[in-house]
Amino acid sequence: MAETSDFKAEPPEGIDALGASSEGASLYEQIREDIIEGRLAANERLVVTDLARRHGTSTNPVREALQLLRGEGFVTFIPNRGARVRPIDQDFVRDIYEIGVLIEPALTRWFVGMATEEDIAELERLQGLIEENNFADPLRHSELDTAFHTVMYQRHYNRHAAELWWKHREVLRAVSRRFNFTLARRAAIIREHRELIALVKSGEADKAAELIARHVEGSGRHVLEHMRARSAARAG
Amino acid sequence: MAETSDFKAEPPEGIDALGASSEGASLYEQIREDIIEGRLAANERLVVTDLARRHGTSTNPVREALQLLRGEGFVTFIPNRGARVRPIDQDFVRDIYEIGVLIEPALTRWFVGMATEEDIAELERLQGLIEENNFADPLRHSELDTAFHTVMYQRHYNRHAAELWWKHREVLRAVSRRFNFTLARRAAIIREHRELIALVKSGEADKAAELIARHVEGSGRHVLEHMRARSAARAG
DNA sequence: ACGCAACAAATCGTACATTGTTTGTCGAAG
DNA sequence: CTTCGACAAACAATGTACGATTTGTTGCGT
Fold it and tell me: What confidence tens digit (pLDDT) does each residue in A18-73 have?
């Protein structure tokens, strides 16, 4: 059972996706999803009583979930005035991508030195599925792509960095789900993934790191273009 | 009043050092300090009732503070079994330093392009105080050193990265407070700071970035050596 | 020595009191 | 008639208290 089996996007291990408490778990996750998916608008007020009623619980679990979200940066607080949804705007996304450009190459470099036969086989399998899907099902592509990169970062000794990457990834996955891939971007993704696998095979860590930097940067640029376009359309 | 006046270490602005609520503020900060400073041992159980009694409040504020700390990664939770102090061990510190080595050069590079006369004057003023103090008062050195780097990262457009840096810095400040600086490290710090100021003046961004990478890495190595030594002593 | 049952302790959810903020109305001045 | 401001009522955040449920432990009987 060494096989990672499926392509479902899951945290790199050891990262607690758990909520505040037994019941709080789903609550935290639900509110969080609502924020990331945009069902809760940017800067929207998060009234504890409302959320409690809506989720069929009392206020205390909601309060704790909000504090947890605050610690993770999804919610902002003003004393005596409650919580608001932190807007996931262009600046926020740009910030995250820029950090990714700095961190992911380092994670990749390490992976190249540690990759096993199975890792490479798994990458090729996922890449096969990605090309097979060929962006027909965007959601599936998103999952596959995340899985692809998870294979690389999963076992990195720097758990803190891996966790950071995963948290960022979750946000970006939700954001990019709102947009389609341009043809140019599709081609670039396929090409870069193939190149990456080749570099992993030949053990060229520096080149792989450099490639990942370009890959992440390109991805960020792509998403930001879409966001800009959409916000421009909304404004015009 | 353009002058940043003092040398007190303060967050880069716009970063809420606020707690859960009016009273919760101090509570959050106190527990957090207790963890970082080591007054609460690694993996120690955090019993809500105890903490409430100790801080003279009821349980709810404590529960919220703990969730906030969880979101920030200082506390771990197991459902129905409560919270524990996340150990700030060598791995944790190493992880943080490694991320710093990746991020700080980028922040520095930007600063070199944006530095004003006042910025440079402030850096030189702080460096003067650092050399004047000459590690006689370690706490003061820590504050001055933090202020020095804050001047550089304070206004960076990537708030997320700046915030990340600050949070890491707070942890490292507390950890390194437990150790003395070796003579070699003292000399290196003074030298590198001077070099850095020179590079900022001449606008050599790449070299400054490279220098910061070395600076952070050296700092990390130094602290980790101390931690290793101490834990070895404890074990032996 | 092992299992099981009663007990102790702490988390988690609910309900409530208090305090601070927001909102809407009324009235007077311009 | 409109505008501004004081005041009051509704609203929501924060803190307190308590009961229910889960977990861990202790001691008894076999």
Answer: 545 555 558 999 999 999 888 999 999 999 999 999 999 999 999 999 999 999 99
**CB B161 to CB A71 under 8 A?**
no
Residue A3 banded pLDDT, cuts 50, 70, 90: very low
Residue A76 pairs with which residues in a beta bridge? Answer: A84
Asked if residues B73 and B210 have their Cβ atoms less than 8 Å apart, the reply is no
Q: Which residue has the tokens 């600076």?
A: B215
In A128-200, which ranges are E strands? Answer: none
Answer yes or no: are the C-beta atoms of B220 and B94 closer than 8 Å.
Answer: yes
Best A95, A101, A109, A172 member to test B by mutation, with max B CBs in 10 Å, is A95
Q: What is the pLDDT of residue A36?
A: 86
Rounded Cα distance between A202 and A87, Å, is 43
- Contact with chain A for residue B160, Cβ under 8 A: yes
B23 touches strand C (CB under 7 A): no
Nearest protein residue to D24's C1' (by CA)? Answer: B81
Give the percent of chain B with pLDDT over 90.
Answer: 82
DSSP 8-state secondary structure symbol assigned to residue A43: T
Measured between alpha carbons, how far is residue A53 from residues A9, A20, A21, B60 in Å? 31, 18, 18, 20
